Amino acid sequence: MTQITAFDIFPIQKFYDFHPDANINYQLNRALYPGAEQLFATIGQRIKNFDDWKTEFFKAAHEHEGRGDIRAAAELYRAAEFFISASDPDRVVAYEKFFDLFYAADPRAAEARVSIPYGKGRLHGLVFRSQAPSQGAVVIHAGFDAYIEAFIGLAQFISNSGFDVVIFDGPGQGTTLMQEHIPMTAAWEKPVAAVLNHFSLDDVTLIGVSLGGYLALRAAAFEPRVKRVMAFDVMLDFFQCITSRRGALAEFLITSLVKLKASPLLNLLARMMMKHDLYSRWGIEQAIHVTGRATPAEAFHDLLKYNTRDISALLTQDVFIMAGAKDHFVPIKQFHEQLRLLTNARSVTGRIYTRAEQAQSHCQIGSFGLAAREMLTWIYLHIAADPEAGDLMDEYDDVHSGAGNP
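^ that's the sequence the OP posted. Answer follows.
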């Protein structure tokens, strides 16, 4: 087995100042791929609103596709799609371009694709099996706005290090949302159970990314087959994240109107915020999109469910909580509160990543390799401490021959 380090897969080790708006700058860094620093700096200078974002990234994607650089084109189409409203037909255009070009550029990933039965539909996933004797199974999912394709590098890094890895788009996520139109559920133990049932897994490490920091902990609270769980990053109260970043007054008004169930006034306030603030426009539109709700008020009421306060004491697993010291989205106080709430966990590890490490942002964008390396180390340590952990994919191999990596 060839040893590949996290920094081979994630060579970018800097968080750039591409744009003065914190959220736009973060998304530029998040979409950045090696060698595109100058391109993204130029695009950043041209962006004043989401229309500019769409125009600039579509233009760059067309240019790269035209000269045959389809992997870069795929990344640029995905970037273009990010801030496009769900009501705009160009969102589907950008998504389909991204999806087709991504898998055309990566045949091994295309061969790793699987479908997982879920209710009357299916979840979309990928399986990467260790080429050496497996040390266990790792399951990864994202959160509010990502696609599993963004985490293929993480999956392959962990798989290359001796683990079988399943990554999946759950309800309200990625391709499961775009192709199956299944809205998100706060009861994340349901899609996790579907994945574990499909692959016959009974002892796994579960990694939740971004909003997955809530979703994974929620699943672990009700799914005993999850033995180790990781919040990458912390997400104790998603409603608070959505409402608090526009100031104390906005948070107070939204929270009060939700509690009073004053939906007409809440919809009016939300539309005013969306008209005058890019962050609010994107967050509220995305919330409506992923929850399948018709109005901002309905989406806000739904998002109240996404917090760990009532379920944290139910976790008895090993738990790893990660956070960025300068996360523009998740208040750092949620990290400290989350650690205090894990009163019955077998073990609790907390890690705050700093600006000095270029890992201060949400999900350590800027130094993803550092986070990936520490996630793997944590898994190694806690697998070694669990005598029941072992090769957990044998039964799946017997029943589902040919799935996953060749």
